[in-house]
Amino acid sequence: MTDIAPDQDLTAVDVDGAIDYLKQRFPDAVREDDREGYSGVIVDKDKLVDVATAIRDDLGFDYLSSATAVDYLGISDHMEMVYHAYRISGGGALVFKAQTDREKAELPSLVPVWKGADFQEREAYDLFGIRFEGHPNLRRILLWEGFDGYPMRKDWKEAYYEQDHKPFDSRWPAGWVHRAEERTPYGKNVRYPDNLDLSRLVDVSEEDVYQSLGLGVDVQQLDSDDIATERLLVNMGPHHPSTHGVFRMVVTLNGETIEKLEPVMGYLHRNHEKIGERNTFLHNMPFTDRLDYISSMGNNFGYALAVEQLLARGARYDAPTYRAEVIRVLMAELTRIVNHLWAIGFWLNDLGAFFTPVLYFIEERERILDFFEAVAGSRMMCNYMRFGGVAKDLPERLHSVANLVNDKVRDYNTMQYLTELITERIPRTIEELEEYLT
Length: 438
Prior knowledge:
By secondary structure, the chain is an alpha+beta fold. Helix content is 33%, strand content 18%. It has four domains: 15-133, NADH:ubiquinone oxidoreductase Nqo5 subunit (Beta Polymerase, domain 2, 2-Layer Sandwich); 162-193, no CATH class; 230-265, no CATH class; 280-437, Cytochrome-c3 Hydrogenase, chain B (Orthogonal Bundle). The protein has a five-stranded mixed beta sheet, with helices on one face. A four-stranded antiparallel beta sheet has the order 8-9-10-11, covered by helices on one side. A two-stranded parallel ribbon has the order 6-7.
């Protein structure tokens, strides 16, 4: 353990030094997480706010990147919140955790320390049932108020559950799958709370949203010129901000002034976590294509690496060959280039160069997608990575799909194609952005 000098600038110490400081200042509340494969510190929940305040004020970790929940059912009787704090100026993450009993899952809120904890704590409450004392607006954020249970808990069973273990036998090894409607009568495919009377159902979630905006009963207000104005409640959305999920804002207007705004994000969750629990590791690979459908190869790669780290702890694991590793890195790098082309092109759209630059980028992007199609059989949902390698090797010779350049069809040898793309065409395209903008 490193001794911290009284006059030392704590905002300059590295993560290890920050952990040493916390253990010295809070010897009875902070301990090293000595579980195999884990890092960071575990904080006594009664001192969580004090420790978090020291992390922010004394050590300079002014950005709470994530606050996520973990259910250790079957391993222990507690649940855990895992926090990652960073310095905006740079450096690694300080990981600290707080544990609570599953049967009475309660922790103090860190919203007073980092306002960014607001939505993340609401998500942990919504999906895991952890209540955060002192949270200013602890309501469900993704599910509706009448939802039965907390679906990310390991003992929660979905409406179509078949067995207590996953994957279900119907998925593997038997492999028979029927539409849920064929085995579940209509109207019985959702579980409701026992005391819920559907004949008298009133959705109170919208009322809660509006009340949280503080409209009150009297919506009349006088401005400085004694002209009667009216507070107006406007639903902006649902909108389609990026991929297939929508986002709504409930806005309180006083004239043309936005007084309050309540984000409503309950349309965005896609349930990949529970789908992942249901399936085998291999069944989940195609789902990673769809987490971000322009990052298929990169998502495949990250998931394959995570599962391989688990498999490496066993005795029957064969590591990928060097060729397989090179191919996977190559695919991930090409995906990165594709995404940068897409992002920069549409960013220039937003800056006012409407669609001229992005067409140049799309042209280059199409060449990479040609390569993906030749290798994996698909341009976007590639499903190409496997645990221990890839689905199939690169073709010996890659032919372009009628790429017309100067009215000639050009054939590309794989390495010639990649050499030209990565070392010549992409840098030239970036350098010529100014020309494209004129």
